[in-house]
Amino acid sequence: MKFDSIKSRLVLMTLICVIGMGILVASQHYFTQRLISLNQQRDALLRMGQDLLQMRRHEKDLLLRLDEAYFIKFSEQAVSFNTRLDSLVPMFSQYQLPITDVESLSDSIETYREKFQAVVALQREVGLTLNSGIRSEITSLENQLTETEVNSSATRELFGDLQLATRNFQITQERFMPEKLKSSAPA
After folding, report:
1. How many angstroms separate the CA atoms of 91 and 88, rounded?
2. What are the sequence ranges of the domains in the chain?
C-alpha cells in the first residue's frame, strides 16, 4: 500500500481520529473521576461546618434549657465531625498538604469537647433541676429556715434578702446583691 494514495491517507486520518477520540474519552473519564472526588470532599467540608454549627447549637441549648439530651447530641455531632475529618486525611496526603492542620483541628475539637464535658459536669453538680445538686440543698436549707421563727425585724429583713437572693439564684444562677447581704448582716 502506497502512502501517497488517497486510501492510505484516509486510513491514516481515521486512525488519528480514533486515537484522538480514545484519548479524549480516557481524559474525560479521568477528570470526571477527579471532579467527583473533589466534589465529595467539598461536601464533606460543608457537612463538617454544619456539624460544628450543630455542636454550638446543642451547647447553647444545654446551657439555656439544662437538658442533658443536648449533651448527648453534642457528643454525637463531635464524633460525626471527627469521622468526617478523618475521611479528609487521604486528600491531604494525596495533594501533599500538611497533615498538621488536620491534627491541629482534631486536637482543638477534642479540647472543645473535653471543656464542654467539664462544664456539663459542673452544671450537674450545681443542679440541672431544682431537685438536684446544690440547688436542691439550697431549696432544703431555705425550707428549714422558713420553718424557724424570726423574732427581730432586722433578722426578718435579712431573711427576706436571703430568700430573694436564693430565688434569684434558683432562677438565673447569678449572684444577687452580695454587697447588700454583707452590709445588712449583723456583726
Report:
1. 5
2. 51-128, 133-184
